[in-house]
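Re: weekly structure request thread

Next one in the queue (299 aa):
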Amino acid sequence: MEPEKLYLEIINNLSDGVYLVDQTRTIIFWNKAAEEITGYSKEEVIGKHCQDNILNHIDKEGHPLCTLGCPLYATIIDGHQRRAEVFLRHKEGHRIPIMVNIFPILEENEAIGAIEIFTPNSPIVYENDLIERLSNLAMNDQLTGLANRRKLESYLEYKLRELKRFQNKFCVLFLDVDNFGAFNNTYGHDAGDEVLKTVAATLKRNMRKNDLLGRWGGEEFVGIFEIKNGYESTLLAEKIRVLIAGSEISHEGAQLSVTASLGVTLARDGDSIDVVIRRADDLMYLSKKKGKNCVSSDL
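Done, posted below.
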């Protein structure tokens, strides 16, 4: 195989998106990963100009880069390599954060084009690789769409490390749907699944940016909340309890509702995942003993 064909074959099978433009910013090569990341096939892109705004790159302030301040064009002009965080528009319309690396294509020390290598970029970057590893695993519960137990445990491990290093307070909530077995026996498992999905939707819609709520297993849910003061955790748990009790599902012409028992505890220095979960779980069982549909806290 000729060297040029070999190089193109290698580039075409990279996991990063790669495209080449000539001096007029006409796209002359578009690899398979670029197709997968953007949704555009090479037939839709090759021959088009960057300034045609097909990808409509913007920066985090929303400035259009393809017409104003294009780093690809700047590299063609001055021959310097560039690296930038931008947002491209997928063919379906949504925005994807990407990291771009741009290199000049030189001939006799003159830029005759440029190559851009782009990689999907996570909007949240942590100082260690713990959360990065999460993206390589199946981390969502299939029924509810919330985080599953594996993701909860991994995130809790991260928060415990953060607590140890920076003393960032957080609490752990353990929630169990009351009388769920009897509900299933009375109305059937399909109705039971709808209850779990309704509880999950209530949790999801009341989750803040740095919180994580997920399904621990069965009818049990766990929440991890950043807080500034200990009393916040009890207020959060009480809010969730009230919202769940006020939610309903339609079943065979009837409106059905459930309640939940909750336990909430503040994470402490020296806690392990098992210790803090067990403490929250014990508090949840205390709520069951009190008569259910209530919150127990050790604060």
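The mean pLDDT is 86. The chain has two domains: 3-120, 130-297.
Next request, please.
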